[in-house]
Amino acid sequence: MSDTVNPPPPNKYKSAEIVDLAIRHSNVLALIALIVIAGVASPYFFEWRNIMNFLRGSAPLALVAIGTTIVILSRGIDLSVGSLVGVSATVVAAIIPFNPVLAVTLALVSGLLLGAVNGFLITRFNLQPFIATLAMLISGRGIVYMYTEGSNIVVRDPPKWFSFIGSGYVGPFPTPVVIAVAAFICMILVMRETQFGRHVYGIGANEEACKLFGINVKGVTLRIYMLSGLLSALAGIILVSRLTVAEPNAGHLMELDAISATLIGGTTFTGGIGSLGGTVIGVLVLAILGNTLNLVGISPFLQMFLQGVIIVIAVLMSEMRQKVLK
Q1: Is the entire prediction scored with pTM above 0.85?
Q2: What pLDDT was estimated at residue 9?
Q3: Which stretches are transmembrane (predicted)?
C-alpha cells in the first residue's frame, strides 16, 4: 500500500490564497467598500467640496492618531491626548491677542511638557500607562475648566498666517490636510529609517530583550509620550485656527477616536505590530462613515453605535490577520 498523500487540487490552493490575501488587506478592502457604499448612498459624497471638508475635519484626529499608534506600538496607551488638545487650544487662544508667535510656541511646548510628565510618571515611578495617562486626562481637562470657567475663549482678528493654519489652502488642498500628510510622511520616515523607530517596535515586541541589548527603554518611552503630546498640541492649534474659538471641551473623547482609528488600521495592544499607514486608513474609515451618515441624515447616536461595531469587527479581523501572517 502506498503512503503517498494526494495533494489538494490547485483550485483549493487558490481559494485559500485569496482568503489569506483578503484577510491581510481587510482594512483596505473595508475602506474601498465604504467608499463605494458612500457614493451610492449620497450623490454629494464625491463632490470635491465635500471630500475636502471631511478631510479637513479629520486632520486633527489624524495627528492625534499618529501619536497614539506610536504609543500603542510600544505596548503603551495614552488616554490623555484629548485633554492635551484642550490644553493647547486654551493656551493658544489665551495668548494670541498679545503675541501670536509666542502663543503657538507655548501651545506646542505645553503638549510636549505634559507628554513628558506622562512619560516621567511611567518610567520613573513605574505607573501603568493606563493610570498615568488617565490621571493626566482628568487633570488636563481640570486645568482647562479652571482657566476658562467653562466659557469659550473667542479669538478675534487673528493674524492671517494663523487663520491659514486651519482655514487656508495649499493649492486645492486645505492646509490642515497638508499638515497632517506632512506629519504622516515625517513619522513614516522616522519609524522606518531611524533607530528610534526600530526601538519603538522592539520595545513593543519584547521589552526585556531590548534591555538586554542595551537599549535605553525608559528614554525611548519618555520620547514616545512627548511626541504624542506634541502632535496633540498641534491638533489643538489647528482646531482653534479653524474655529477661531477654544472650547473647554475641545478634544473631548478624541482619545477614543484615535484608539479606534489605530485598531481599525490593524495595530494591536500586544505591541510591536501595526503601521502608521494602517492608522491613516482607520482615520479615513471613521471620517467617511461619519460623513456618509451625516449626508443621509442618520442620528449621531446611531453613528456612535456603528463605530463601536466597527471597532469590534476591526479587532477580530486584526487577530485573523496575525494568524495568517504567522
Answers
A1: yes
A2: 62
A3: 28-46, 58-77, 89-117, 129-148, 168-190, 224-243, 263-289, 301-318
